[in-house]
Amino acid sequence: MARYRRLPRAEVASACARLDAGEAARTDLAALTRHFLAVLEQRLPGHSVEVRVPPFGAVQVIEGASHTRGTPPAVVEADPETWIALARGTLAWSEARLHASGARSDLTAHLPLV
After folding, report:
1. How confident is the model at residue 3 (pLDDT cuts 50, 70, 90)?
2. What's the number of domains the chain is made of?
3. d(CA 57, CA 80)
4. pLDDT for residue 88 is more than 70
5. Residue 3 belongs to a domain
6. Contacts with 37 (C-beta within 8 Å, 6 or more apart), sequence order
């Protein structure tokens, strides 16, 4: 079961417009972050990679070996602006400033999410 919910298209479009105009509020960043985490979780169910976007959320995705304690074998961590840009396709994985560790942490093949 997804931890986060997908937003209606109109809400995503409005929040993205505010972001593009440089007028996004913290609530917009939180909503978009959680929306795109929900999309990723729905498309790539599993527990082998943890995608973290502090302080707004984290999900475990991609089938494979799962973990029950401690840090998972593959982790991706990005700030909200970077995560949203990757999810929207306005930033390439190779150009993103993020932390990715583990053999399955390269999400290039799964992005963008729109």
Report:
1. confident
2. 1
3. 9
4. yes
5. no
6. 3, 4, 51, 53, 57, 58, 59, 83
Alpha-carbon distance 69 to 91, whole Å?
32
Helices (DSSP H) in the chain: which residue ranges?
9-20, 26-43, 80-88
Cα dihedral across residues 69, 71, 75, 81: positive or negative: positive
Yes or no: say if 59 and 3 are a contact pair by the CB < 8 Å rule.
Answer: yes
Structural domain includes residue 54: yes
> What CATH number is given to the structural domain containing 85?
3.30.1050.40
Range of the domain at 33: 9-110
**Chain segment 89-101, per-residue pLDDT in tens:** 999 999 999 999 9
